[in-house]
Design goal:
- By secondary structure, the chain is mainly beta.
- The chain folds into three domains: 67 residues, no CATH class; 121 residues, Jelly Rolls; 170 residues, Immunoglobulin-like.
- Helices cover 15% and strands 40% of the residues.
- The chain contains three helices and 21 strands.
- Strands 11, 13, 15, 17, 18, 19 and 21 form a seven-stranded mixed beta sheet that branches. The chain has a five-stranded antiparallel beta sheet with strand order 1-2-3-7-5, covered by helices on one side.
- Helix 2 runs parallel beside helix 3.
- The longest helix has 26 residues.
- The chain is elongated.
- The N terminus and C terminus are likely disordered.
Length: 377
């Protein structure tokens, strides 16, 4: 799936500034900067993965391990995504034919092939050729970007002026079903509908089938003189619509798994992320300094392939646990706000840092969009 940069960035910027979705604005800022820098053939996928292709456009000469271009894979999100393969199309030109290529492999920045043995592609077809990695590559904002170089042997039969232009389709991911949880650092006593944790579900399969999830299991354990009795009206919501609810209010069981049955199955389209929020009311009597350890057990999450009915179990996408600290109640705190005075983002009480990131990232995103508009027109 390829996203037109102009439309994609405009929609993301508008939607996330309206909802004050800080994590997504940061991601959009990174994407806009990437495009504004002039990166050729950059593709942004719904799970946050960015694939930038830089093919060799000039003619190449016969030889061994000839460089045909590079692919850079990055992911500005904290949740790690494993890329297991790349579908690469190679279009010959200048009188060349795909049969002039053999022994095609992808090499990492250290010069080592990551597609050895049975993963070497010797016969190049007219469509996408799947380059399967020896082992999946994990990409996240912590790991940084990964650059791979495509090299092939070019036969002596290739005529002078031969070109082989590469392009890359949507990567293949493994594992194909992951869950990730991150918690707010703190929530004020007396706050209502405050986000204690964000949960991300990612699903992908080669057939493009949707994955349905009917319940979200969460464990909450009170500590430091805290009590789950101080958390009421707990619900699962979409981070894109915190005013709505995906589940009924559910009573938490301290130290035990609580299953939030969803009002309707949650559909995760292949290659997309569903971002959810665990929200609760925090009683004014909640002790300042008390804690709530929150976790999700991937083995307790069940997904169903909407096409085949196959049952799927996710694995951890990075973090699946965290701890929230109860902070003092701030006079005049807005209902439904984890940070007094702004819509709840799960970011806790870091108001100054949050607003700084929001302002800078929003300007970067809008600047990238404006730059693109000027380039296109």
């Amino acid at each position: 799936m390829f996203y037109d940069a102009d439309l994609h960035i405009r929609a993301l910027v508008a939607r996330n500034i309206r909802s004050m979705n800080i994590k997504n604005i940061v991601r959009v800022g990174v994407i806009a900067t990437l495009f504004a820098a002039g990166t050729a053939f950059a593709q942004v996928y719904p799970n946050g993965v960015i694939v930038s292709t830089s093919p060799v456009l000039s003619s190449v000469s016969p030889g061994s391990s000839v460089n045909l271009g590079t692919v850079t894979i990055s992911n500005p999100q904290a949740a790690s995504v494993n890329v297991s393969a790349l579908p690469i199309t190679i279009t010959p030109g200048g009188g060349a034919a795909a049969s002039h290529l053999s022994n095609c492999q992808l090499f990492n920045s250290g010069g080592a092939s990551i597609t050895t043995g049975g993963n070497v592609v010797n016969a190049i077809g007219s469509g996408a050729n799947v380059f399967t990695f020896n082992s999946p590559i994990a990409v996240s904002n912590a790991s940084g970007s990964t650059t791979l170089t495509l090299r092939c042997d070019v036969s002596s039969g290739a005529p002078s002026g031969s070109t082989f232009v590469m392009s890359v389709a949507q990567p293949m991911f493994n594992p194909a079903f992951t869950v990730n949880l991150d918690t707010a650092p703190s929530v004020p006593a007396g706050s209502q509908d405050v986000t204690l944790a964000n949960i991300q579900l990612f699903a992908w399969n080669s057939a493009g089938a949707t994955t349905n999830v009917s319940s979200i299991p969460v464990m909450v354990t009170a500590g430091n003189f805290g009590s789950t009795a101080n958390l009421t009206d707990c619900r699962i919501r979409s981070t894109g619509n915190l005013s709505g609810s995906l589940s009924n209010a559910t009573v938490l069981s301290n130290g035990a798994q609580t299953s939030f049955s969803l009002l309707a199955p949650l559909s995760i389209f292949s290659g997309f992320v569903q971002s959810l929020a665990l929200t609760c009311d925090v009683a004014p009597a909640a002790a300042v300094g008390s804690t709530f350890a929150i976790s999700v057990d991937p083995n307790a999450v069940t997904g169903v392939n909407a096409s085949t009915g196959a049952v799927l179990t996710p694995v951890s996408g990075g973090s699946i646990a965290g701890t929230v600290i109860v902070s003092s109640q701030v006079p005049g705190a807005a209902s439904g706000s984890g940070t007094p005075g702004i819509p709840n983002t799960g970011a806790g009480g870091d108001l100054i840092q949050v607003m700084y990131v929001l302002t800078i990232s929003g300007l970067i995103a809008l600047g990238g969009y404006a730059y693109l508009r000027s380039r296109v027109r």
